[in-house]
């Protein structure tokens, strides 16, 4: 029997499907304060730097030991996340920033590290891109590990009662990796997003999870009964016995469905009436490819390159970029990889570029606008990509395009780079395909003109929705208005697909709408044949594709054309269970 306290329901974001039933285990992360101590001698400065270096070495050794332990246990899903953490711990830029504060501001290593880590966390949390925003947890995780080895208390012992549901402000990737699945049934956090590494690992390891629950989660106490629905993004607190019975049945049904989805990994993404659909993934680094292929992905529809350019004092040189792109090309083999050129600006800062502070940065100096202005940075990136193009099936995509003239200017820079490489005898794929992201309404409206200039379109729905509806989705007051099923958004998407098909060029979608099972049949009915998404979403979209008759999808699209609200359209577009 459960306690008789009145039940409540908390809404969040489902990031790892499944049903968990159990008692709450509330985790509290200790907040580490600045000491305010200042150093008084050169000897103290040298000692603090040595202490920091020792803490970093200990931290790297800890992560390496954790990787070895998890590998021995066969729990290797997401180990690339820990390998990425080693790269962060060993990043010369991190050390330079900490050492600068110790030497110039006479701060302790403890205080310097807190300030450097907090600045990086704020940088990532302020980003519009959900994947990039989720990286703040990796930064915090690595920073906390070094702090602990500097002597700070930042973590409590991880001793979980059997069958518990963890309640926390946030969980670090390391926390998620080390969850004992024989004890932990699921977790819910106040913060976080769909593409945070913790969410990805949770899904990979089959741990039901709900994130972004907000302050309401703070009212849950230890040992309270909970039901967590990782699909619906709901947390039921103190449910009654009838509700528990209903969810136990749902839990059994989900286990059966999950087994069936896993069996689809090597099955083709083909509709019931024989139409092939390409299911690709959005990634940010070579390690992400493992998860893409494990989930049945056929390549990369969007390689974000921003991480190469952020959190440093100068842009990456040609060799660093070349090795990055080459590694991905080799790992992908013959599978396609679409590389988006640098999309800095807006929410993605690069101080060394000297970007001006703007009142409306998302409508300002960013992405292709910077590249066409700073051709030195742009040429270096294009040259690195072109060099890597001989190692795999790479494509180049320009973001934030709003006019035909911008496309022509970008292609002219690329031709200039190619001509220089030919003169120098540097090999590259001279037939490499070039395309653009359609994420500005102006681009969607002139899709017929743009289609004559490029080899492919990729519809970036995240920004397209925001710009079309004049909604800042990071603003809580208007975020509910951000809706990919708004008739205006769907009309623009349909126009882009129609013009691409009419002009004989390829068209895909790399925004979050591509990962929404509710939208799959509607998009197929519009003529979309390529979907790119987070790797963990691929099996769910593949299920929708394989259960769809294209003729029915086209009928859905025709019917939706006459509907005047997002709610009506959403009710009409029921996913196939």
Structure description:
The protein has helices at residues 42-73, 79-89, 92-105, 109-125, 130-134, 136-149, 173-177, 197-204, 241-262, 288-294, 318-332, 368-373, 375-388, 404-424, 441-445, 447-450, 461-469, 487-502, 517-526, 538-546, 550-560, 566-572; strands at 8-11, 13-16, 19-26, 164-168, 184-189, 209-211, 225-229, 234-237, 278-283, 300-303, 336-340, 393-398, 433-438, 456-459, 506-509, 530-533. It is α/β, with parallel strands linked by helices and 577 residues long. The protein has 3 domains: 8-28 and 157-259, Glucose Oxidase, domain 1; 42-149, Orthogonal Bundle (Enzyme I, Chain A, domain 2), CATH 1.10.274.10; 278-572, Alpha-Beta Barrel (TIM Barrel). Strands 1-8-7-3-4-5-6-2 form an 8-stranded mixed sheet. It has an 8-stranded parallel sheet with strand order 15-14-13-12-11-10-9-16. A hairpin with a 4-residue loop joins strand 7 and strand 8. The longest helix has 32 residues, at 42-73. The radius of gyration is 24 Å and the shape is globular. The mean pLDDT is 88.
What is the domain total for the residues? 3
Shape: globular
Query: Per CATH, what is the topology of the largest domain?
Result: TIM Barrel
Let me know the largest β-sheet: 8 strands, mixed
Number of strands: 16
CATH homology superfamily of the largest domain = Phosphoenolpyruvate-binding domains
Structural class by helix and strand composition: alpha/beta
Low-confidence stretches: none
Q: What is the annotated CATH architecture of the largest domain?
A: Alpha-Beta Barrel
């Amino acid at each position: 029997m459960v306690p008789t306290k009145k039940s409540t329901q908390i809404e969040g974001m489902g990031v790892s499907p499944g049903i968990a039933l159990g008692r709450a285990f509330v985790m509290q992360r200790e907040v580490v304060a600045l000491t305010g101590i200042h150093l008084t001698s050169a000897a103290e400065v040298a000692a603090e730097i040595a202490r920091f270096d020792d803490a970093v070495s200990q931290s790297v050794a800890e992560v390496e030991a954790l990787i070895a332990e998890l590998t021995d246990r066969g729990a290797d899903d997401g180990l690339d996340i820990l390998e990425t953490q080693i790269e962060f711990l060993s990043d010369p830029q991190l050390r330079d920033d900490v050492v600068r504060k110790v030497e110039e501001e006479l701060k302790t290593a403890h205080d310097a590290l807190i300030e450097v880590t907090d600045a990086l966390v704020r940088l990532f949390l302020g980003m519009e891109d959900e994947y990039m925003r989720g990286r703040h947890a990796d930064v915090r995780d690595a920073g906390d590990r070094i702090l602990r080895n500097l002597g700070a208390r930042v973590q409590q012992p991880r001793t979980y009662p059997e069958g518990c549901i963890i309640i926390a402000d946030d969980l670090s990737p390391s926390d998620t990796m080390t969850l004992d699945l024989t004890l932990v049934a699921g977790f819910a956090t106040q913060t976080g997003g769909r593409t945070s590494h913790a969410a990805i690992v949770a899904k990979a390891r089959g741990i039901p999870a709900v994130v972004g629950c907000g302050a309401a989660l703070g009212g849950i106490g230890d040992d309270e009964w909970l039901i967590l629905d990782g699909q619906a993004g709901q947390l039921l607190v103190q449910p009654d016995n009838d509700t528990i019975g209903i969810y136990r049945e749902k839990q059994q049904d989900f286990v059966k469905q999950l087994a069936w989805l896993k069996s689809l990994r090597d099955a083709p993404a083909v509709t019931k009436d024989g139409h092939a659909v390409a299911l690709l993934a959005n990634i940010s680094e070579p390690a992400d490819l493992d998860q893409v292929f494990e989930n049945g992905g056929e390549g990369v529809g969007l390689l974000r390159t921003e991480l190469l350019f952020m959190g440093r004092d100068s842009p990456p040189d040609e060799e660093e970029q070349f090795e990055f792109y080459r590694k991905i090309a080799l790992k992908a083999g013959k599978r396609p990889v679409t590389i988006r050129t640098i999309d800095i600006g807006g929410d993605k800062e690069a101080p060394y570029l000297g970007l001006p502070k703007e009142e409306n940065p998302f409508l300002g100096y960013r992405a292709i606008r910077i590249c066409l202005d700073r051709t030195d940075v742009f040429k270096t990136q294009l040259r690195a990509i072109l060099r890597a193009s001989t190692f795999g099936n790479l494509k180049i995509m320009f973001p934030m395009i709003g006019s035909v003239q911008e496309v022509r200017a970008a292609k002219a820079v690329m031709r200039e780079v190619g001509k220089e490489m030919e003169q120098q005898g540097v090999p590259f794929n001279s037939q490499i395909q070039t395309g653009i992201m359609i994420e500005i309404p102006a681009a969607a409206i002139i899709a017929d003109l743009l289609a004559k200039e490029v080899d492919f379109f990729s519809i970036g729905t995240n920004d397209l929705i925001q710009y079309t509806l004049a909604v800042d989705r990071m603003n809580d007051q208007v975020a509910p208005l951000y809706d990919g099923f708004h008739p205006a958004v769907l009309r623009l998407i349909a126009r882009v697909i129609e013009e691409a098909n009419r002009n004989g060029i390829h068209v895909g979608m790399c925004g979050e709408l591509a990962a929404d099972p509710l939208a799959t049949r509607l998009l197929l009915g519009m003529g979309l044949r390529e979907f790119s998404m987070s790797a963990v979403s691929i099996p769910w979209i593949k299920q929708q594709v394989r259960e769809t008759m294209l003729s029915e999808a086209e009928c859905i699209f025709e019917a939706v054309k006459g509907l005047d609200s997002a709610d009506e359209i959403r009710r009409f577009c029921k996913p196939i269970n």
